Amino acid sequence: MHIKTLTVDKFRNYEHEFVELCSxxxxxxxxxxxxxxxxxxxxxxxxxxxSHRARSDAELIKFNExxxxxxxxxxxxxxxxxxxMRFSRDGKKQIKINNVPVKKLxxxxxxxxxxxxxxxxxxxxxxxxxARRRFIDEALSQLYPNYLVNLINYHKVLAQKNSLLKxxxxxxxxxxxxxxxxxxxxxxxxxxxxxxxxxxxxxxxxIAKPIHSDIANEEFELIYQPGIKMTGDKNSFxxxxxxxxxxxxxAGTSLVGIQRDDFKIYTAGNxxxxxxxxxxxxxxVLSLKMxxxxxxxxxxxxxxxxxxxxxxxxLDINRRGFLWERITDKQVLLTCTDIDDIKNxxxxxxxxxxxxxxxx
Length: 360
Ligand SMILES: Nc1ncnc2c1ncn2[C@@H]1O[C@H](COP(=O)(O)OP(=O)(O)OP(=O)(O)O)[C@@H](O)[C@H]1O
Ligand SMILES: [Mg+2]
Known about the structure:
The protein is of the alpha/beta class.
């Protein structure tokens, strides 16, 4: 899968820029705060529908402007796509692929696959469980629209359930009855999500093992920590919810479910979050991202586009060499402030980014 052209208009600090990309490594270099990450963000938006860092779409629109427009030409081995995305200040977002409106995010996400790798990803190892769930959700949502549909439905029901638990307005009998209806729905959607996650963590762990051993010569293991005790069928999900009903009413919120899922990362026999050094933690992220890349290839039979945001400077020379070797057969968009460490070969294109302008 690869991107041919990107156009940004009134997007972040860009007025109007067009760039043609090569199918190898595209290096965007320049000083801080010039607009390098903004370009990766623009590409990311086409694969996920929302930004990896903005809290709202309005942030994406250039200051004092009303509408931001992005356009992307990309191709996989079967066909070519033209995608347009438009954000306006009233919160409306329009997406078209080959001129056909895309109404649902779950429909957008399966066209373009990307894997993003940025310094914030360190949170996957040392941060809260939400960062690890995000990693899972990003990977699975772009491969399986059905996963995202179940996840969205689950969270809709969960929000209703939590609002009732927070503010009990019915009699005990009525409350129990309403909760049971919602628990049934949560069991339905939640079990689907659980199955995808369980399988994903096992597979990604197995793919990452040899990668990690190549980079760091250390063992690597992932262990799923579901937020609910269950056997894997929806009856056991439902039963666990029902068993926790009294506790949840007392707590005024949901206590069990896939919204509390997590996974543990072990390297060299110890839990990485607690014992790994900063460098070891970074290596875990590198292994997981490379494993995600191979996983996408195994499902789609296409490599995703890699977005590497300012990570070369964080890796030592061996790890940099390792990464470089693994990305040569993929399309990469890479940002850095200093190009001294970047190999300059026929498969690499350089673009200087200066105050919202792209200079080839
Ligand atoms: N909506 C917006 N309108 C105008 N400018 C914006 C908007 N949002 C962000 N910017 C500006 O875009 C600039 C560049 O941001 P970006 O994150 O792409 O920088 P960068 O080149 O990646 O820098 P660094 O090397 O520090 O990571 C910032 O100075 C920011 O103020
Ligand atoms: Mg940046």
